[in-house]
Amino acid sequence: MSAGAQAWLDRARALRARQDMVGAEAALAQAHMLAKGDMQIAFLHAQARYELGHRAAHVFAHVCRQWPDHLDAQRNHALALASEGQVPAALAALEAALARHPTWAEGHRVLGSLRWVSGDTQGFDASFARAARAHPAHAPLWLGWFAAVAQVRDWSRATEILNEAERRLGALAALAQARVFLAGESGDAALMARILAQGNLAASPLVTIARIRQALREGAPDAALALALPLTQQAPGSPVAGQAWPYVSTCWRLLGDPRAAWLDGDPAFVHSVDVGLSTAELGELADLLRGLHQAQLPYPEQSVRGGTQTDRSVLLRHEAPLARAREALLAATHDYLRALPPPDPAHPLLSRPREALRISGSWSVRLHGKGFNVTHAHPLGWISSAFYLALPDPAANAAPDAGHFHYGAPPEELGLGLAPYGTIAPAVGQLVLFPSTLWHGTVPFDAGERLNIAFDVVPGM
Questions:
Q1: Which residues share a beta bridge with 273?
Q2: How far apart are CA 319 and CA 285, in angstroms?
Q3: Half-sphere exposure of 119 (CA within 13 A, CB side)
Q4: Which candidate, 308, 453, 455, places its Cα nearest to that of 387?
Q5: I need a surface site. Which of 136, 156, 347, 415 has the fewest CB within 10 A?
Q6: Sign (positive/negative) of CA torsion 323, 325, 331, 334?
């Protein structure tokens, strides 16, 4: 690589670290011009174009032709094709790559997800099935197949997959851990108890969270708390700690412990504000987002029911309406941080640096009649949000809280009956900010459209 190409590549990396994606893409384009034969630069340039929302499939295709064993390029080529409306071509590209690399579990996962969001809810996992049976000693294929089916809560098929995997692979720790998760989520408390009583199950966050959830289902918040609190002792921002804190909150509330108010805020650390975008700007932004909702169904791992969620990070795209929204939303988030109580080194929200912000994820959710978001939290975030661009007409919905944002209530499947701390009736142009560790969801509505942008931020560099 020439010195000039290296300089542009270094500049692109620095700009990307600051989330200046437009500048990073321009620098990568210059590096690519100076080093056309460097496929790593070509891949990075394609990736930058894809993240910005530009057409990138043709650039990924060039990398794939020159570097056919670069599996990230193969995957992202398919994703770029799908984003450009070429779903059959995306499926064909992944199938061709999997024919060459049949044990590529990530490729099977992406293929299954694309099939699912395209409406194939019956055969979406067919490539996993073929590959696992053709390579029965390859554990990642069985575990990936199980995860794909478990994500859509098809517990009977997930059980069949685990049974077959155990016949093929024997007693693997990862399969035993999957069995604990499955027993808990499918409601087989007796099986879960038998597995745990054997005493030879390796500890893992997956097993611990499964045990926490089961203890809560069984009305033992003290036992759940004893399991959850040690997980929170990891470094601030740890995904495991982020996953555990909402359960700690639930346990403290059930036990009447005043630390629940310390954790969630008294009142809760939830704030709503109008970010100052004009009616015309909001309308332009809503129209742009509607064009990004191309899938028929949400991705299985998402909290959306009765609607769709976009891929990639919408606030890092190149379109001017999104750039204006990003600036306004980050300004409001800085205001939220300035209004928080003083730092507290033990608190997941208050312990972290507040000077700079980085978007760790952003997406748009579009719900239609009967749509909602199931209760969830964001273990990878620090501060989370919902910014509203279109809302159902209250006159078309019978319930007074239809389409409202609710926060604090744990997931319904735990059967705890804890009421939310509160609900917010959203308004177009309004941003709601809250800790990523706080349970939250959406009340279903009868008819209409509910369109928003959601994003997570973490402390910046």
A1: 431
A2: 9
A3: 5
A4: 453
A5: 156
A6: negative
* Buried b or exposed e, range 402-428, using 16+ CB within 10 angstroms: bbbbbbbbbbeebebeeebbebbebeb
User: Is pLDDT above 90 for 453?
Assistant: yes
Distances in Å between the Cα of 159 and the Cα atoms of 146, 147, 165, 268 are 8, 11, 10, 40
Instruction: Grade residue 297 by pLDDT with cuts at 50, 70 and 90.
Output: confident
The CA–CA distances, whole Å, from 130 to 160, 324, 406, 441 equal: 15, 47, 42, 37
Q: Are strands 430-435 and 383-390 parallel, antiparallel or unpaired?
A: antiparallel
**Does 148 score more than 90 pLDDT?**
yes
Domains of the chain, CATH where assigned: 271-459 (2.60.120.620)
Which residues, at least 6 apart from 229, have a Cβ–Cβ distance to it below 8 Å? 244, 248
3-state secondary structure of 348: coil
C-alpha–C-alpha distance, residues 289 and 312, integer Å: 13
| φ, ψ at 272 (rounded to 5°) | -125, 145
Pairing outcome for strands 357-373 and 383-390: unpaired
Q: Are 423 and 443 in contact (CB under 8 A)?
A: yes
25-39, 100-114, 242-256: the lowest-pLDDT one: 25-39
CB 185 within 8 A of CB 212: no
- Per-residue pLDDT tens digits for 369-402: 888 888 999 999 999 999 999 998 888 888 888 9
- CA end-to-end distance (rounded Å), the chain: 29
Residues present in the chain in total: 461
Cα 18-382-336 angle, rounded to 5 deg? 85
Closest CA to 359 of 315, 321, 392, 328: 315
Q: Which long-range contacts (CB under 8 A, 24 or more apart) does 14-18 make?
A: 16/48, 17/461, 18/461
Residue listed under structure tokens 């931020």: 457
Residue 216 pLDDT greater than 90, yes or no: yes
